[in-house]
């Protein structure tokens, strides 16, 4: 494609930046979503997840989250071609200047220790979206890896109400189906899934059922297909498998509500040819060939941009 922009709803760069030898601005083997790679892929919106290992105690988790936010401020938001986005007016300013929009999200709420006041302070630091869990259980809910399969706790429900009050997005990725059902029952607003695929195409606990995908669409939410190979197919996944998931979501009516959340720097099984942010250049060409340029642009960028304009505070 001649010109395109990309919005990506999930990378784990910040976790890697805890290793102070790794530099976001440098092109190197350590980072899949380094600044040069993001620029090569024409990434104009990047959500940076705050992820810490949930096995650590809550105090250590909160410390590491703050350390990652510091790394974001020290290495990402200060780059002249990047601007931190916390609001719709920030987003409009970024578009008029042609910078990359950088947004913070929280992947897993263990660091909150069940307290909404910690969430409010993370929001003050610029965090604009959150998933309640990673794969494990915490004070808020059970993740998709918990055999017990519990739903939201009282603290989890309080966090969901606070997320809505703060205009922060609610991310369903990693949550157990029971918790997903609870969220859909206690809210009527939009929900999103930053990095997940379709379970009807590949049976995996991290993928979304058709009912949930339809509900995301009906509520004007958004979902980002992800490039972790084990969520795409059995055996070695290819870009063609990404298209199988995409075709399915389009069949469910998702042409205005689907895009991508790569999980670069967080995947353990990359897809060949789709293993770093610069590879969006190849994906853009293949999307344009397969779906036409207008739909390709919507999938790569516009759908998430529209979601942000609905979701972010003014
Ligand atoms: Zn994840």
Automatic annotation (TrEMBL):
Biological processes annotated in GO: proteolysis
Residue ranges that the Swiss-Prot or TrEMBL entry lists as coiled coil: none
Ranges that cross the membrane: none
Alphabetical list of InterPro entries matching this protein: Metal_Hydrolase, Pept_M19
GO molecular function: metallodipeptidase activity
Xref: PROSITE patterns: RENAL_DIPEPTIDASE_2 (PS51365)
Protein name per Swiss-Prot or TrEMBL: Dipeptidase
Species annotation: Alicyclobacillus acidoterrestris (strain ATCC 49025 / DSM 3922 / CIP 106132 / NCIMB 13137 / GD3B)
């Amino acid at each position: 494609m001649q010109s395109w922009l990309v919005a990506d709803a999930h990378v784990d760069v910040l976790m890697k930046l805890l290793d102070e030898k790794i530099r976001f601005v440098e092109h190197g083997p350590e980072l899949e979503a380094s600044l040069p790679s993001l620029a090569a892929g024409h990434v104009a919106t990047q959500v940076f997840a705050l992820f810490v290992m949930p096995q650590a105690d809550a105090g250590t988790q909160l410390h590491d989250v703050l350390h990652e936010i510091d790394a974001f401020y020290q290495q990402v938001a200060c780059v002249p071609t990047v601007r931190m986005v916390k609001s719709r007016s920030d987003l409009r300013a970024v578009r008029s200047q042609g910078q990359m929009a950088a947004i913070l999200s929280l992947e897993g709420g263990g660091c909150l220790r069940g307290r909404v006041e910690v969430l409010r302070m993370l929001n003050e630091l610029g965090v604009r979206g959150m998933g309640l869990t990673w794969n494990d259980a915490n004070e808020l809910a059970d993740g998709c890896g918990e055999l017990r399969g519990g739903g939201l706790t009282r603290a989890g429900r309080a966090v969901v109400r606070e997320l809505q009050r703060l205009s922060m997005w609610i991310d369903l990725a990693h949550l157990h189906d029971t918790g997903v059902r609870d969220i859909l029952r206690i809210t009527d607003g939009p929900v999103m899934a930053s990095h997940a695929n379709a379970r009807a195409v590949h049976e995996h606990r991290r993928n979304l059922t058709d009912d949930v995908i339809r509900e995301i669409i009906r509520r004007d939410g958004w979902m980002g297909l992800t490039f972790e190979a084990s969520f795409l197919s059995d055996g070695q996944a290819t870009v063609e498998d990404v298209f199988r998931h995409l075709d399915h979501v389009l069949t469910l009516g998702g042409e205005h509500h689907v895009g991508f959340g790569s999980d670069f720097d967080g995947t353990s099984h990359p897809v060949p040819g789709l293993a770093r942010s610069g590879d969006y250049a190849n994906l853009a060409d293949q999307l344009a060939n397969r779906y036409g340029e207008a739909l390709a642009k919507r999938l790569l960028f516009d759908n998430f941009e529209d979601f942000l304009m609905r979701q972010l505070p003014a």
